Amino acid sequence: MSIKTIFIDFGGVIVKTPNQNAIQRWKKILGWQDSPEIDQMLAEPNESPLITEICLGNLPEDALWEKMAEDWGVRPVLIKKLKQRMRSKQNLNEALLKFVASLRSDYQTAILSNAGDQTRQLMEAHYHLDNYVDEIIISAEEGVIKPDPKIFEIAMQRLNTTPERSLLLDDYEENVLAAREFGMQAVQFIDTQQAIHEVTDILNHKE
User: Fold this and answer.
1) DSSP designation for 163
2) Cβ distance 132 to 157 under 8 Å?
3) pTM of this prediction?
4) Which of 56, 89, 122 is the endpoint of a domain?
5) Quick check: helix, strand or coil at residue 13?
6) Contact at 8 Å (CB) between 4 and 106?
7) If you count DSSP H runs as helices and E runs as strands, how many of each does the chain have, helices first?
8) Which of 26, 87, 146, 183 is an S-S bond match for 163, by CB 3.0 to 4.6 Å?
């Protein structure tokens, strides 16, 4: 059965993840204090309890910035600049977005993201990603996160599709495996060229 709907992850796919070397440099230059919880969140966001609570909608995203300011001993003005830097449009994966835009004439497209309560505004008002996809599904608004199959069920209902006719592009292996277990096709994002090649191969393989 041919693919009808393509779901694309946001963090680490559409938008680039923070550069760990740059973060460590800034910490050293500015004398930021060590914080195991914040350091884990930046290095392994998918394993961070704090990020999980934010993505479930149990904590507002502002709680994260407040904790960073407190644990790192950073003045609010610097936190504001860090937030702006992380939300820079230069972080967008323009090549992938161009590919996603090229799919819309033949497929339904949607963003399916584990993300917090401010992410829709970021996606739509700042990045204008609603111009690239038909639907945006954010975990904090649904109260469930990938790899929980419940969020895939929500995605199927929202796009009026089925697992057999759906494909997920995600950078986190556990989410890719969960999507396949749910019955979807799935590609793990390693880099842009690889992802586009693998997705195109699946789309061209029509039964």
Assistant:
1) G
2) no
3) 0.86
4) 89
5) coil
6) no
7) 11, 5
8) 183
